[in-house]
Design brief:
Layout (H helix, E strand, L loop, with lengths): L2 H20 L5 H22 L2 H18 L4 H4 L1 H18 L6 H15 L3 H21 L3 H23 L13
Helix pairs in contact: 1-2, 1-8, 2-3, 3-5, 3-6, 5-6, 6-7, 7-8
Length: 180
């Protein structure tokens, strides 16, 4: 492994350190802010290890998080914003396609976008769980050691958060979204 890949892996481990705390947050804004910090570290990581689809989708995700942090402003509050970012992820695939594994970051980023669009943290966590599984597969293919470790920790963190929410007595009827 050359120095660039080692540096890339180290940046990934830095992002991983921050990532663990993302899904333990109770406020949507805190989740998005911490996600923004990790995204910058992941962009560097994927650039140095050659995971260009994930690098590109992560760069687009930075703008997504900025837009979603400002969704109280009229320009960012419409559904067009949701569709714009999902479309941007799929367009990025045209420029970065390098085999079927390249599809995983695009689909995962689209799923995460739907998660960020939700106002309810418990729903966000479910979308992020699905997104993490997709990125775990991609990280295995591109041999991102930090990415594999990160997704394992993220999945564990999400499972803990989802279980913790269930034991707090917050029961949500998935069909009607009403509390019992």
């Amino acid at each position: 492994m050359n120095y660039m890949k080692i540096f890339g892996q180290l940046m990934g481990f830095g992002a991983m350190g921050v990532s663990f705390f993302i899904y333990q947050q109770k406020k949507r804004e805190n989740i998005i802010l911490l996600k923004l910090i990790t995204d910058f570290l992941w962009i560097i990581h994927f650039a140095f290890i050659g995971g260009y689809t994930a690098m590109t989708t992560t760069a687009i995700a930075v703008f997504r998080e900025i837009a979603f942090l400002n969704n109280d402003k009229k320009i960012f509050s419409g559904k067009w914003c949701l569709y714009f970012f999902i479309t941007a992820f799929f367009v990025s695939l045209i420029f970065t396609y390098n085999g079927i594994a390249s599809v995983f970051p695009v689909i995962s980023s689209s799923i995460a976008t739907i998660g960020f669009w939700n106002k309810k943290v418990s729903k966000m966590q479910v979308f992020f769980f699905i997104q993490s599984v997709g990125m775990l597969i991609y990280n295995i293919v591109v041999f991102s050691i930090a990415g594999i470790c990160n997704e394992m920790i993220t999945i564990s963190s999400l499972i803990i958060a989802i279980i913790r929410n269930r034991f707090k007595g917050v029961k949500v009827d998935a069909a009607s979204e009403s509390r019992r």
